[in-house]
Amino acid sequence: MCLLILAWRSHPRFSLIVAANRDEYHERPTAPLSKWPAPYDLLAGRDLRAGGTWMGLDRKHRFGVVTNFREMQRPRRSAPSRGLLVPAWLSQEDPPEVFLSRLETDAPGYSGMNLLISDTDQLWYASNRLDRFARQLPPGVYGLSNEYLDSPWPKLRRTREAFEAWLARPSADPVEELFNLLADRTPATGGPPMPGVSPEWERILSAPFVVHPTYGTRSSTVLLLEPTGQAIMAERRFDANGERTGETEFFLNAGEWP
User: Are 10 and 198 a contacting pair, CB within 8 Å?
Assistant: First the structure.
């Protein structure tokens, strides 16, 4: 049950702001945020089981993030990995609408997914669980978990409200402040029940930052892009107790690449 909040051209300093929690089983092998080896040219964490990623940035500051869509049925064994969609987007040169137009043909073969991609000029959202597969997003603030974009889940609504309040005030340390916003471990109250999920699991998963011995928030990531070409991408990693185990930060000036 991942969580992401995003501001697109809605801040006086940053053209794109992304703050996201990745929730996953703790036993799933994962590599931390780093520069990927050739032939890839991107910064991302890596799922070592399927080889993909949940969120990445390339040297042109094109961005992509994918979340699973909450469904009760098991994914088909033959379905391609959703984590390969972000590297696929960042490994080609076409604009978002062309990439998504090509993807639309094969999208039904994937398990349920949401995809957000940008090329600094446009931001697009796609889901293979919508009748209209993809659409361009205007400037604004958005939230995404494991249903449709801006689905009013209590934890997403609370986090988005805190994010919007943060956007409205001066910021002395945006990276630290956004990490603090993502660290909310308070279970939500109210909201629709989750079919097929026990009340205990429903309470655990309702917190923006999930702590559980087998499944929880593995990492938090903050991405800040400026129109000048400067960028910050930072990741904090956590164990099954919610304790921080590592942190990686990239600070990029215009034209720089690690």
Answer: no
